[in-house]
Amino acid sequence: MSKCEQCIVREFSSLKALNKEELIKIADCKTSYSVKKGEHLFEEGESVNGIFCIKDGVCKLSKLSANGKDQIVKLIKPGELLGQRSMISDEPTNLSAVALEDMEVCFIPKTEILGFFDNNNKFSMSVMKSICGDLKEADDQMVSMAQKTVKSRLAETLLYLESNFGKNNDGSLHIQLSREELGGMIGTATESCIRLLSDFKKLGFIELDGKKIVLKDHKGLQKLAE
Questions:
Q1: CA-to-CA distance for 76 and 99, rounded, in angstroms?
Q2: Residue 186 in 3-state DSSP?
Q3: Quick check: 146 pLDDT over 80?
Q4: 163-204 pLDDT, tens per residue?
Q5: Can you tell me the distance from the alpha carbon of 133 to that of 117, in angstroms, rounded to the nearest whole number?
Q6: What pLDDT sits at residue 143?
Q7: Is the distance from CB of 213 to CB of 175 less than 8 angstroms?
Q8: Is the dihedral of CA 142, 148, 149, 153 positive or negative?
Q9: Distance between CA 90 and CA 7 in Å, rounded?
Q10: Buried b / exposed e across 147-169, counting CB within 10 Å, b at 16+?
């Protein structure tokens, strides 16, 4: 019981609107498990039938394009919920979720969650707000893709990765994406992404060490991102 009450996911997500009795219900029906780096939480087109609570670790939400490229739509960190939209719309997931590092997650069945919608208005409003937030984010991303240069988007993405997911002890970005993944996030080919990173290095914005990226000139990147 106390585990659900004290959990990081409850602190940051819609679950904070649930009362003690509802949290006891969740504790009784949830399944906790580990997901290894590179493993799927779910695949595009799957019926999830519940929500995932991300307790520890980071995963990518991505979509496979017609040409077989993996386009990262969003990165999910501890404290967030996954699967809310497809649970409410009663549709299969339109994205895949893959662990970028080892993860600890809990799964709560749909039947339990939907029961809270009937009895807890604060909870249902909180879930709706969360989904509206996702839609706003998608709109912003679409505008950014249409109006900003690839250089701007790369600067923006590097700053986002550092501010949201932190740095390692050596100063490098904690989330290490492949050049292909990074290219997908900013909407450009892998080769262009590699070239841009090389340009950023020459300009003194970043340092590169294999896959590792260290941000050096935050003001310069910020200016470019705007």
A1: 9
A2: helix
A3: no
A4: 999 999 999 999 989 999 999 888 888 999 999 999 999 999
A5: 19
A6: 75
A7: no
A8: negative
A9: 27
A10: ebebebbbbbbbbebbeeeeeee
